């Protein structure tokens, strides 16, 4: 067995030496083209990249930013989380290079960008399953229908008790925790659950999802919602609620979110880029390329669901078109 390993190793070393020699001869015959290509790939950049927007998208972009700065230490990537609406307000004024969003850009936001001479490009980063969560000690909720969610969250002018939602549940007042009005997650929930009706005025609103996590974990009678990554990061102290969108209760996970089975709370997550920055700032183009090449695994790492590889590839082609 040892002689076989030695023979195999000897063959491998011989092959490597032969390959190295051949490469050296090839590089000599081709001049310095190999060195130039390597130098281009390893080119170190400098400058700043400004990113703001959705708190839901923040974990993905934070992870991408950290990985990018490890390869390009001369570039400072600053990622804020002022909410989708707050991010677009800055982006449409030209204050940021990228604007993260948990919903598509609105017509009025597009108009604001156009008025300021800003051309935009949308990129999808991952899929999210907006997660309904209750306190870990809640032992009565096994699932909620879309109609029950609406009944709970729409403003009715009176305090809502669990017993108002389903017979046999506790006669205790429900405590609500929701993303704030600048959040794309709020907008999405408003669209598919509230159907544009006013939210329960008793709800505690915050643009910081960690505030919502702490609120739900601190009260047995609480309920809240936010992006799946924040549930995944806190699943030891939160209970996720399966949602019945008409075909039976479904819990959010990678499979049900990607397939759309977790309906109607599955959605894509976006970032928008200022196309002028792609052309004028080498570090912004380089970051966008790195982002699309690495968004899939990093989105999975922080708790979201990757797009299909062909979707990232198609967007990389779009990016290359912007550079021309």
TrEMBL record:
Protein known as: Phosphate-binding protein
In this protein, which residues make up the domain named PBP? 44-293
* Family designation: Belongs to the PstS family.
Cite the entry's keywords alphabetically. Cell membrane, Lipoprotein, Membrane, Palmitate, Phosphate transport, Signal, Transport
UniProt cross-references to PROSITE patterns, sorted A to Z: PROKAR_LIPOPROTEIN
Q: How does it sit in the membrane?
A: Lipid-anchor
Pfam families referenced in this protein's UniProt entry, alphabetically: PBP_like_2 (PF12849)
UniProt xrefs under Gene3D superfamilies: Periplasmic binding protein-like II
Which residue ranges have biased composition labelled Low complexity? Answer: 24-37
Self-association and partners: The complex is composed of two ATP-binding proteins (PstB), two transmembrane proteins (PstC and PstA) and a solute-binding protein (PstS).
Organism, as annotated: Priestia iocasae
PANTHER family from the entry? PERIPLASMIC PHOSPHATE BINDING COMPONENT OF PHOSPHATE ABC TRANSPORTER (PTHR30570), PHOSPHATE-BINDING PROTEIN PSTS (PTHR30570:SF1)
Name the domain of life this protein comes from. Answer: Bacteria
Task: From the UniProt entry, list the residue stretches annotated as the region Disordered.
Answer: 24-48
């Amino acid at each position: 067995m040892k002689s076989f390993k030695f023979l195999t190793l000897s063959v491998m070393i011989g092959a490597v030496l032969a390959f190295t020699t051949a490469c050296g001869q090839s590089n000599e015959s081709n001049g310095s083209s190999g060195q130039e290509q390597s130098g281009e790939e390893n080119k170190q950049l400098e400058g700043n990249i400004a990113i703001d927007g959705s708190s839901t998208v923040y974990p993905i972009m934070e992870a991408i930013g950290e990985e990018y700065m490890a390869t390009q230490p001369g570039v400072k990537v600053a990622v804020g989380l002022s909410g989708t609406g707050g991010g677009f307000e800055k982006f449409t004024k030209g204050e940021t290079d990228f604007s993260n969003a948990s919903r598509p850009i609105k017509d009025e936001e597009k108009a604001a960008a156009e008025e300021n001479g800003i051309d935009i490009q949308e990129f999808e980063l991952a899929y999210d399953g907006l997660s309904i969560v209750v306190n870990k000690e809640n032992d009565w909720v096994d699932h909620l229908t879309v109609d029950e969610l609406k009944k709970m969250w729409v403003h009715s002018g009176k305090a809502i008790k669990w017993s108002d939602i389903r017979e046999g549940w506790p006669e205790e007042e429900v405590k609500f925790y929701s993303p704030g009005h600048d959040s794309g997650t709020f907008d999405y929930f408003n669209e598919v659950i509230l159907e544009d009706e006013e939210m329960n005025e008793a709800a505690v609103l915050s643009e910081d999802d960690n505030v919502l996590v702490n609120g739900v974990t601190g009260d047995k009678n609480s309920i809240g919602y936010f992006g799946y990554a924040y549930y995944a990061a806190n699943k030891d102290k939160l209970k996720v609620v399966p949602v019945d969108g008409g075909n039976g209760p479904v819990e959010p996970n990678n499979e049900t979110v990607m397939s759309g089975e977790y309906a109607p709370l599955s959605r894509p997550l976006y970032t928008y880029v200022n196309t002028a920055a792609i052309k004028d700032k080498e570090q912004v183009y380089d970051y966008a390329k790195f982002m699309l090449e690495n968004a899939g695994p990093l989105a999975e790492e922080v708790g979201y669901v990757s797009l299909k590889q062909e979707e990232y590839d198609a967007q990389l082609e779009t990016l290359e078109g912007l550079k021309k």
